[in-house]
Amino acid sequence: MNQSDTVTLPPLREDIEIMQGAPDSSGAETWVIHDPLQHRYFQIDRATYNLLSLWQPGRSLTDIAEIAKRQAKININEDHIARLVEFARLNNLIRQDQPGHWREMSERVAADKKSLFWQIAHKYLFFKIPLVRPQQALQSALPYVEPLYSKPTAVGLGIVGIIGLYLTSRQWDSFLGTFDKFFSIEGIAFFGLSLLLLKSMHELGHAFTAVRYGCRVPVMGVAFMMLTPLLYTDVTDSWRLPSRRKRMLISGAGILVELGLAIIATFLWVFLPDGTARGIAFIIATTGWVMSLALNLNPCMRFDGYYLFSDLLGVDNLQPRAFALGRWKLRQILLAPDLEAPEKFSPRLHKTLIIYAWITWLYRLVLFTTIALFVYAFTFKLLGIILFALEIWLLILRPISLEVRQWPKIDSSNLSSRRIIVNSSLIIGFLVLFAMPWSTRIEVPAVLMASDLTQLYPARAAKVVMVSAVRNSEVRQGTSLLHLQDPKIENQIAGTQIKLNQKRLRLAHAIANRTDLDESLVLRQELGSLQAQLAGLLKEKQELVVRAPFDGKVLQIGYNLHQGQWVGKKDLLALVASGEQLVVKGYISQSNLYRLTKLSQGRFIPDDLTRSSFPVRLSRIARTGSRSIDIPELASITGGTIPVEPDSSNRLVPATAQYLVELKPLGINMHPNQLVRGLVQLDGTAESFLLRVWRQVTKVLVRESGF
Questions:
Q1: Alpha-carbon distance 104 to 126, whole Å?
Q2: Which residues face 447 on adjacent strands?
Q3: Same domain, 196 and 149
Q4: pLDDT at 533 over 90
Q5: Do residue 106 and residue 125 come from a single domain?
Q6: Please, which residues bridge with residue 652 across strands?
Q7: What are the residues whose beta carbons fall under 8 Å from the beta carbon of 421, sequence distance 6 or more?
Q8: Nearest in space to 575 (alpha carbons), one of 678, 659, 673, 462
Q9: Would the pTM count as exceeding 0.85?
Q10: What is the pLDDT of residues 563-615, one digit of tens each?
Q11: Domain end call among 70, 86, 112
Q12: How far apart are CA 406 and CA 336, in angstroms?
């Protein structure tokens, strides 16, 4: 006896509904199975609908196939019917009083049960908290909201939007300047409240529109995506609508509400006075425009834009079906050119879905990597590393691993040996290219300067009165280069001179004044003390005149020195050089430091192409990293290549660890009268790209682990 004659159809649940669905991308009719118990919808085609309409519990598969052929005039085989029965079992659409049903469900639940680690990881990535069941309240409030769906409302918002944007454009600088007022605790609080209001209205837009078209909204709540709270509204019931236009209106209602609020807020901002109300209008306006257009309309994530794009293409379950096509095309390119596509679409839609899948994968790769980096950066060390690794594995590496594991299962008759060999060779070639230590060159930003060089710093914090030094000028020992002034010393000198004059005056009148005559000895002692104090103050004042320490040349004046500027004890004022010996000084990044050896040699290439290059040899490497870049010519803010950020003391702090190196010129025949900026290309230990990445990763892990 054939197995098809022994397998019988189980009875379906009586509460299941079958209703007309929206047409698919080709315009063909579809139907929807609604499971009210699980609140799930399943889309089926005409053949499956006809088969379900002929469903007779207890009949064998062969009998049903014959009935379908005789009554519905459709040819369908037993395998198709068996797959439909299995679909009904897997999705709990059969009656629960059937023999062995509960055992099947128990075994299925046990098989699907995830490990504790997987459950925690899944809950971290995404979970929902239902808050309210709004159906009755939405139906009661709908008559009051109905006027907002009218044509006059749309026209009025359009007019207000045009006026608001025009008037705002005339005050654009003032509009953008409002943003600066929110860098405070109060500003952040207002931003949070405004965002909560905006997103609440967004979700109410979905909910009211769904109820308006006869759909049920069972729950509204908050979802957490990677612990980030997002409001959500369950409008799954919109699947029952046969009109894709209505489904698109439900999906886009939140965006339209945000745009409407942004239009009104932009208009109000123009007329509101400065204060809290205007600030809130600014937040709603900017957030509404940006969130609606940049985030909600993005079809690569499952927000409103995804469902709008799905209905626009007429492809339900867009991402799973597009991803299946994307994987198929990838397998076809890499392994099996004759592999059959999982679904048939029109040529144009076929290409659109493949491109959409690949763009979404690339977008997610960038997005998830960025999120993982943010999580790593804004949590404490150990937790940051764990969460970073978890997200990279679950969101990026695991999907890639699952796809690669499917390749051996491809039917060997579809595989192309030539294509496999060519693609494998290319992959191996790229791996070899990245793994081979090709480059031995190390680039070091450097300058050529005189070896006998003196750096001049102020004796104390002072104000620049005059800069008399000229760059590249010859100076004699003792020549004044800069005049500095400390108002505190000037006040002390003036006060001391006044006291001296008073003491001298009292001593001059001592003969005529009995009191001063009796205190003349004390007055002379105080006079001597004040004279010594004045001499010390004058000496300190004299030290604020910066002079050349020897005969030589001024190679450099301190960065951005000008009259009236205050300088500290660590601020470089000038570089003065003597003699004809030259040296090359530069900075090497920490990542290349270990590749240098004591015998490393290279070549100095000046930025000035009119000067010739010359060989150099490494002579000294600093033992510790530099806290600041003391050669301003090499800093990024002065045209150099080392990224720096000036601190509060105006020091040029490097963005990454830099070590000072000195190199000896070999066979140079030039004696420049100024610093010559250039690049040193040194020979170092060869290193591959993969090794460099591995060193960077291990360095971060060791640093963040606290060992």
A1: 29
A2: 585, 677
A3: yes
A4: no
A5: no
A6: 646
A7: none
A8: 673
A9: no
A10: 888 888 777 788 787 766 788 999 998 878 878 877 788 899 998 888 888 99
A11: 112
A12: 13
The residue whose two tokens read 């505190």 is 488
Pair 384, 457 in one domain: no
Strand order in the sheet with 228-233: 126-132, 220-225, 228-233
Tell me, yes or no, whether 616 and 696 share the same domain.
Answer: yes
* Cα gap 347→353, rounded to integer Å: 10
- Rounded Cα distance between 704 and 707, Å, is 8
| DSSP H/E element including 678 | strand 676-687
Residues facing residue 221 across a β-bridge: 130, 232
Least confident of 273-287, 410-424, 595-609, 639-653: 410-424
Q: Which amino acid is at 297?
A: L
**Closest CA relative to residue 444, chosen from 164, 659, 157, 227:** 659
Same domain, 92 and 151: no
User: Is residue 639 within 8 Å of 565, Cβ to Cβ?
Assistant: no
Q: How many residues does the chain have?
A: 707
The residue from 490, 524, 557 where one domain ends is 557
Q: Are 471 and 553 in contact (CB under 8 A)?
A: no
The rounded radius of gyration (Å) of the Cα atoms in the chain is: 40
Query: Residues 363-386, buried b or exposed e (16+ Cβ, 10 A)?
Result: eeeeebeebbeebbeeeeeeebbe
Residue 320 lies in a domain: no
* Whether the Cβ atoms of residue 645 and residue 653 lie closer than 8 Å to each other: yes
Please check whether residue 572 lies inside any domain of the structure. no
Among the listed residues 425, 458, 620, 656, the one whose alpha carbon sits nearest the alpha carbon of residue 541: 458
CB atoms within 10 A of CB 661: 22
How far out from the chain centre does Cα 589 lie?
25
- The per-residue DSSP string of 555-617 comes to EEE-TT--TT-EE-TTS--EEEE-SS-EEEEEEEEHHHHTT--TT-EEEEEESSTTSPPEEEE
What domain range includes position 379?
350-415
* Measured distance CA(505)–CA(520) in Å, rounded: 11
Are residues 285 and 175 part of one domain?
yes
DSSP string spanning 37-104?
TTTEEEEE-HHHHHHHHT--TT-BHHHHHHHHHHHS-----HHHHHHHHHHHHHTT-B-TTSTTHHHH
Q: How far is CA 279 from the centre of its chain?
A: 26
Q: Could you give the CA distance from residue 157 to residue 257 in angstroms, rounded to a whole number?
A: 11
Whether 375 and 302 share a structural domain: no
Whether 1 shows a pLDDT value over 50: the answer reads no
Residue 618 lies in a domain: yes
State how many domains the chain has: 5
Q: Are residues 104 and 122 in the same domain?
A: no
Please write the tens of the pLDDT for every residue from 631-675. 888 888 888 888 888 877 677 888 888 899 989 888 776 666 667
Q: How many CA atoms lie less than 13 Å away from 573 in the CB half-sphere?
A: 31
Say how far apart CA 622 and CA 278 lie, in whole Å. Answer: 56
H or E, element range at 406 = helix 398-406
| Closest of 672, 668, 555 to residue 617, by C-alpha | 668
Q: Is residue 531 in a domain?
A: yes
Give the DSSP letter string of 157-181. Answer: HHHHHHHHHHHHHTTHHHHHHGGGG
CA distance 301 to 304: 9
pLDDT one-digit tens code per residue, 452-511: 767 788 888 888 888 888 877 778 888 888 888 888 888 888 888 888 888 777 777 666
- What sign does the CA torsion over 691, 693, 694, 696 have? positive
Please work out, in degrees rounded to the nearest 5, the angle formed at the alpha carbon of residue 66 by the alpha carbons of 64 and 71. 90
